[in-house]
Amino acid sequence: MKTNIYLLILVFTVFFSCKKTDQILDRPDKKLNELRSQYIEQLVGAENGWIGYLFPEGGRGFTFKFEFNNSNRVLTYSALDEKKIIGTDGKFV
């Protein structure tokens, strides 16, 4: 008899301890567009652009500078040589 009472208390505890919360379900495309606009704002908002480093297995290191604009384009500079910096258009800077 005691086990039945303990089992009943356990069942009631499990069922009544769970509280339902209202979930606000937005459309997935709306969430993606909001997240995309946040990323674009962060990328474009960088005053001096972004710097990336690449260290391949060959032992050398390369530096890249990225400047994003509002029209969804990026201007890239890379330091492939110690003395020259090459822009996206192939000209030396």
Task: Explain the overall architecture.
- The protein is of the alpha+beta class and 93 residues long.
- It has a domain at 32-93.
- The protein is 35% helix and 19% strand.
- It has helices at 2-17, 28-44, and strands at 50-54, 62-68, 74-79.
- A 3-stranded antiparallel β-sheet has the order 1-2-3, with no helix packed on it.
- A hairpin with a 5-residue loop joins strand 2 (62-68) and strand 3.
- The longest helix is centred in the middle third of the chain and has 17 residues, at 28-44.
- The mean pLDDT is 80.
Concise summary:
With 93 residues, the chain is an alpha+beta fold. The chain has helices at 2-17, 28-44; strands at residues 50-54, 62-68, 74-79.
Helix tally equals: 2
Look at the helices and sheets and give the structural class: alpha+beta
General form:
elongated
Poorly predicted regions: none
The total beta strand count reads: 3
Series of H and E elements: HHEEE
Largest sheet: spatial strand order = 1-2-3
Instruction: Tell me roughly what share of residues is in helical segments.
Output: 25-40%
Task: Give a short account of the largest sheet.
Answer: 3 strands, antiparallel
CA-CA gap between termini: 87 Å
Strand content: 15-25%
Q: Supply Rg.
A: 28 Å
Mean pLDDT score: 80
